Structure prediction request, 420 residues.
Amino acid sequence: MFADSKYLSKAEQLDREDPLASFRERFTAPEPGLIYLDGNSLGRLPAHTADWLNEVISRQWGRSLIRGWNKGWLELPVRLGDKIARMIGADPGEVLVCDATSINLYKLVMAAMAYQKGRHRILSDELNFPSDLYILQGIISLLGSGYELDLIRSEDGMCIDHDSVMSAIDENTALLTFTHTYYKSSFVQDMAGITSLAHRKGAMVLWDLSHSVGSVPVDLKACQADLAIGCTYKYLNGGPGSTAFLFVRKDLQEKLQQPIWGWLGSKDPFQFGTQYEPAEGISRFLVGTPPILSMSAIEPALDLHLEAGITALREKSIRQSAFLLEMFDNWLSGLNFTLGSPRVHGSRGSHIVLRHPEAPAITRALINPSVDRVTVIPDFRTPDNIRIGIAPLYNSFKDIYTGMQRIREVVETEEYLKNP
Ligand SMILES: Cc1ncc(COP(=O)(O)O)c(C=O)c1O
Prediction:
């Protein structure tokens, strides 16, 4: 079995010095040997979530019954939104927890296109998350002739450079929409630079924060961002399919009209009037009844993040990424691997992509090892990307060491050929 005592002792030393080390125990780990490096796709379960959900089910739903709506359920989308706001540099009342990321994208893009009358073009890029591109294509098809979606090309398949964005914006551009941290390469866009560029040309910008929230510091206020969306099941550990969020800058809230006029986004839902009037503030971006049970599952995880603090989380993520890259250079570069993420820490989120022609088989061998080997779960993105998700709240340096050690072993011994 491949081992390197120098890096093993370094991992142990870094774990001893890690100020966030104790957060690991606040997550369930029913399979103690498992090395989970996929928190960028589905975060682990916080230890408190099951008890909290049990409380919400038995006490709030079981006892309060319908009275629960007047005891905090109606405020939950805004209350949880305010907690997320603290992680992304937004003010209270600017973030709402609701719907799925794709649906929030639809609502905000439609609202922006209606607001930007006379401009007919949406600008995005070919590395954006496919669901975002599908939603944009659907919107263009719905808006009809004269509207267009243009995708900026990437020169290296990893990043979108600032100059291509600058030269692509024109007088007809209503909206730019990009992912802040790219799902495949982990490239982090220049939010401040692009937002100010777009504003100078009269365009709005919508950011998808799904891979940034909880892992990369975001300051929407300092960037004067217009709109943002994001999910809560990755680094935020809200659970599979947990409710997403949206951000609308305060001064835009009254100006924008969202396209789905549901009763919970209306001014006084319990008057049961026949004519829709939008609610004041961020609540007008709600549609239907919030899923209280699944939304409640997000709260313990948000509290853990706020306790740890995004600055400390980012610092640890960078230390862990540097450690991973050192092992990558020393152990893997001769084994036909290439790096699929930017090397500069400031241009990269919290996952790192290792590219290899045999990536699908290598990933399968890591996830389904022979009996005496540890299971490592990264994820795979077509065609040749192994994504290593670093979740600093619960991943140790030893996890990173063991994950990399297994990758080297699987390739060096050609174990992946046994599991094609
Ligand atoms: C960057 C990004 N945007 C959007 C989505 C889609 O989110 P949802 O399924 O909540 O619509 C994902 C899902 O992984 C994503 O990674």
In short: The chain has a mean pLDDT of 97.
